[in-house]
Amino acid sequence: MERTSLSRREMTMPRMVIIVCIAMLGVACSQQQPAETPAAEKSTAADSLFVPPDTSTIPKNATGDLIRYGRELLVNFPYYLGPKGKIGQFGGNGLGCQNCHLEAGTRPYGLNYFSAHARYPQYRAREGKVLTLADRVNNCVERPLNGKPLPLDSKEMVAMVTYMQWLGKGVPVGGNVPGDKLKEIALLDRPADPKKGRAVYEQHCVRCHGDDGQGVLKEDGIAYVYPPLWGKLSYQPGSSMHRVIKAAQFIKYNMPQDLARWDKPVLTDEEAIDVAAYVNDDHLHERPQPDLTSEYPKLKEKPVDYYFPPFADVFPQEQHKYGPFKPIMEWRKKNGHPTGY
After folding, report:
1. Nearest CA to 75 among 183, 136, 176, 159?
2. In Å, what is the CA distance from 92 to each residue of 87, 222, 302, 333?
3. CB-based contacts of 113: which residues, under 8 Å, 6+ apart?
4. Could you tell me the sign of the dihedral formed by the alpha carbons of 181, 52, 22, 225, in that order?
5. Contacts with 29 (C-beta within 8 Å, 6 or more apart), sequence order
6. Quick one: CA dihedral 193, 195, 200, 201, positive or negative?
7. How far apart are the C-alpha atoms of 37 and 98, rounded to whole Å?
8. Domains within the chain, CATH numbers bracketed
9. Is 336 helix (H, G, I), strand (E, B) or coil?
10. Distance CA 282, CA 271 (A)
11. What spatial distance separates the first Cα and last Cα of the chain, rounded to whole Å?
12. Which helix (H) or strand (E) holds 224?
């Protein structure tokens, strides 16, 4: 199959992503599965979700060609811009945009691109300044993909941003639409437990990622069938997926990708949080080590689950990593600090 021409079958086949296949149906955990949502409520929630335009509506002109090219780059990034990319070598580890931004950035609650174009430029606390959408794309290339930034005026960057603009047609400027964020989960009253998370991984995730968490590389050696969850070729610390709450939100409503849906998750909140802690346990798993000293120049703006010191609050590094997070959020609220994650 030509890499530059994606078939519908290829786009709909299960793809594992960063932190993929974290668990199957239930493991021994103290928290029970949540009650089934009534069908009427599910229907109402689904009806309210933003529906991106169909690719058949992409115009057949020069702009449409750029939109299609941008979509192709985002779906098959390693083949064009990865370590062995035919256009340029910008990504550094064989991972691609679709490992996190599922289904070409169109999956509800799957780190989609629905409102990306509408909300940029925006202030980013990690850099302490306003970034454009192209700047934000390069954030991902540099961090999760362990790469180097694309030229902001390159055809490839313009194409990816143009696809995101087309995908978000109808989204109000500066606004959000239902389904564009990660779905909330209930935070635990205890620290996340990597040992419990390891039990989930060993029982259900080895089928995709193996005992060593290194995933499965495609036969062509360019991209992954199932990406590595840790190691030198996985995402860096400082990436959003390296934070326990953020990772758990993604896992709960998207993983295993061939089974879970946003309205029918496989894992409990507790399982998702514990397995996120295991995958992101730096004592157990090696990762690339970027320089994080310039991150979050305003200390109080660090997310509650960002665990690289120093901190503007009174809580230790270990608690910022694993929780419990509620006391941190309560202290921050009382002292006028942001409480986000």
Report:
1. 159
2. 14, 11, 27, 39
3. 101, 105, 106, 163, 164, 167, 168
4. negative
5. 196, 268, 270, 271, 274
6. positive
7. 29
8. 55-167 (1.10.760.10), 302-334 (no CATH)
9. coil
10. 19
11. 41
12. strand 224-226
Strands 122-124 and 216-217: unpaired
What amino acid is encoded at 266 in this protein?
A: V
Q: How far apart are CA 212 and CA 206, in angstroms?
A: 9
How far is it, in rounded angstroms, from Cα 257 to Cα 240? 19
Spell out the per-residue pLDDT of the chain, length 341, in tens: 434 434 433 433 444 333 334 333 333 333 334 444 454 445 456 669 999 999 999 999 999 999 999 999 999 999 999 999 999 999 999 999 999 999 999 999 999 999 999 999 999 999 999 999 999 999 999 999 999 999 999 999 999 999 999 999 999 999 999 999 999 999 999 999 999 999 988 877 788 888 899 988 999 999 998 889 999 999 999 899 999 999 999 999 999 888 899 999 999 999 999 999 999 999 999 999 899 999 999 999 999 999 999 999 999 999 999 999 999 999 999 999 999 99
What would the 3-class secondary structure string for 120-164 be? CCEEECCCCEEECHHHHHHHHHHCCCCCCCCCCCCHHHHHHHHHH
CB 111 within 8 A of CB 239: no
Q: Which residues pair with 130 in a beta bridge?
A: 123
Indicate the residue type of 315. F
Joined together, the tokens standing for residue 286 give 């090696």
Instruction: Please tell me the distance from the alpha carbon of residue 284 to that of residue 308, in angstroms, as a whole number.
Output: 17
Give the C-alpha separation, 170 to 86, whole Å: 34
